[in-house]
Amino acid sequence: MKFRITTMAAAAAAFTLLCSCASLSGPKHYQLTEKDSDRLLHLNRGDTFTILLPSNPSTGFSWEFAKPLYNENVMALQGDKYIRPDKQLIGAPGKRSLTFLAKGSGRTGLKLVYRRPWEKSQPPVKEFNVMVTVKEGTKFEQKR
Fold first, then answer.
1. In a domain, 66, yes or no
2. Does 2 reside within a domain?
């Protein structure tokens, strides 16, 4: 009986240690798409995330950062590229890929608008919004 209790205690201690080490596994990467607009993203410093949005520059539309701009002390743009469609059809849409690094503690919003740059007086065709908080603990949840 004493052996069984000791074994169970050792197993519980090992499980606790394993769970606490899981959070020390290093930076994480998250991928967001159009359906993730209006979400809250909680990150640890050093985590990264990529926003992948449908884009078709051949129509004149492009994703732009809307004002107010995000806080560069909280997150930094690491990459911005256009991914061509698999099929090389004229006018086929591709994707815009924006990758950010969680740089420092704090909170910032990010708003992207899909519009033709010369039509500033027209409302955007699409918007993408995300609120980013960089602190201890990582989770992804829907904005309330």
1. yes
2. no
